[in-house]
Design a protein that fits this description.
Elements lengths: L1 H14 L1 H20 L2 H6 L19 H67 L3
Length: 133
């Protein structure tokens, strides 16, 4: 008899605080992925040189060839940094998108779960009594 008193309490928890806890956990997972990939920092330093590698002018004499080689090395390091950061951002957005889609599936499953349990319980009980010798 106590089982029948438990069902309404479970349904109330499932669609109130249980659902809010599920949403909170999903938001925490997506926030973790944003922090794990450092998306804010990657966007702010998108055109920064790769691993802060850059050439500096060491000579006191103005040498056009030296200045052009320094400029070329610095441009190449910035392009390498752009490519690496863009690749990491693409991977991050793919992971976040997959998590978001899976989260929508989990939320849908959470909403349907009590009805699914009820359906499976009634269906298995009916099947049990139907095939009794």
């Amino acid at each position: 008899m106590k089982f029948f008193l438990l069902a309404p309490q479970y349904i109330a928890w499932h669609y109130s605080s249980g659902f809010l806890a599920l949403i909170k956990n999903i938001c925490a997972i997506i926030e973790f992925e944003f922090n794990f990939f450092s998306i804010k920092d990657l966007l702010l330093t998108l055109f920064a040189p790769f691993q802060r590698l850059k050439e500096k002018n060491r000579g006191s004499v103005i040498d056009i060839e030296n200045l052009l080689s320094i400029f070329l090395v610095n441009v190449i390091m910035r392009l390498v940094g752009l490519v690496v950061r863009t690749f990491i951002l693409i991977c991050a957005f793919i992971c976040i998108s997959i998590s978001f889609v899976l989260s929508l599936g989990i939320i849908l499953f959470w909403i349907v779960l009590p009805f699914l349990l009820l359906f499976l319980t009634i269906g298995s009980t009916m099947a049990y009594f139907k095939y009794q010798p």
